[in-house]
Amino acid sequence: MFVPAKLVKIMLKKAADNIGIFFWYLFSLLPFWFMYLLADGIYLLLYHGIKYRRHVVRTNLQNAFPEKSDAERLKIEKQYFHYMADLLVETVKMISISEKELRKRMHMKNPEIVEEYFKKGRSIIAAAGHYGNWEMSALAFGMLTDKKTIIVYKPLNNPNFDAFLNKQRARFGSMLVTMKQTLRTMISLKDELTVSVLASDQTPGVNEVTYFTQFLNQPTAVFLGIEKIAKMTDAAVMFYRIECVKRGHYTYELVPLIDNPKETAQYEITNTHVAYLEKQIQETPQYWLWSHRRWKFKPEDYKK
After folding, report:
1. 237, pLDDT greater than 50
2. pLDDT (tens digit, 9 = 90+) per residue, 77-108?
């Protein structure tokens, strides 16, 4: 029987992905103490060996903190790469982490706030940054309430790994929604009480840039989705704050920002949640995603 070459290629790729996923899962079964030994080695490899995006990190830190000395920025740079190595192994570990272990390592500081707003008939939309272990917090987020907890995410390029990772992310109850499906999903759920989390520091695509705000000392292109959805649904706007207590242990909380979104001026909600993230980054900068090429677009490129 003739099998088209394209189909064979797809089948082989899927088989290779499944083998990779199998070993990824096996790796996740290793104990935390051993994972952190590996993380120490990964740091040396990333920073001193292959020098992974060191120029990107250094440039971002120089632009964000021009008032700091070279020595201060270098310290943050090394702290960031140490944390990045931890984040890599923790993200793998979350694939098989138990509910008991997750609750021990990811503690919600104010869970009562969700029910307080639900009693008022108000849904919540929370802005979050790529700060701390956002993946582990997303996993714990599903245990927050018996109502719908929605996490908006950007799909991976590999559909097999994307499907596997989303299955793990939803293990404790979260509903995963792609960025492109967000508005449609929110409209369909507008009569239900929900608590949703959207990244506030995603970079828009080249054809999606419509607004720049000041963030970390430079004009920054941002999505307006949180503002649009909050005004459309009258959901209370909060910030999803994650803090690293010690290695592998975090707290997270919902910090109220805007209670009456329909009464705000244009861009007020966006500027408010971006400013909150900026303040947290300035306090403890090593936990933000500095290796991301965040400032690819400039306002002058979009002037007519």
Report:
1. yes
2. 999 999 999 999 999 999 999 999 999 999 99
Query: For residue 255, which phi and psi values (nearest 5 degrees)?
Result: -105, 115
Question: Residue type at 12?
Answer: L
- The burial of 186, by beta-carbon neighbours within 10 Å (0-12 exposed, 13-18 middle, 19 or more buried), is given as buried
The label of the residue with tokens 């941002």 reads: 222
Distance CA 301, CA 207 (A): 12
Residue of 274, 260, 179, 180 lying closest to 222 (CA atoms): 274
- Strand intervals (E) in the chain: 106-108, 124-128, 148-153, 175-178, 194-199, 212-215, 218-221, 236-246, 249-258
pLDDT greater than 80 at residue 3: no
CA 229 to each of CA 28, 153, 212, 273, 289: distance values in angstroms, whole numbers, following the listed order: 36, 15, 19, 14, 25
More confident residue, 257 or 138: 257
pTM: 0.91
What does residue 123 show for φ and ψ, rounded to 5 degrees?
-85, 165
Cα–Cα distance for residue pair 44/48, rounded to 1 Å: 5
d(CA 198, CA 176): 11
d(CA 87, CA 91): 6
Helix, strand or coil for residue 50?
A: coil
Q: How far is CA 3 from the centre of its chain?
A: 41
Tell me the β-bridge partners of 199. 128
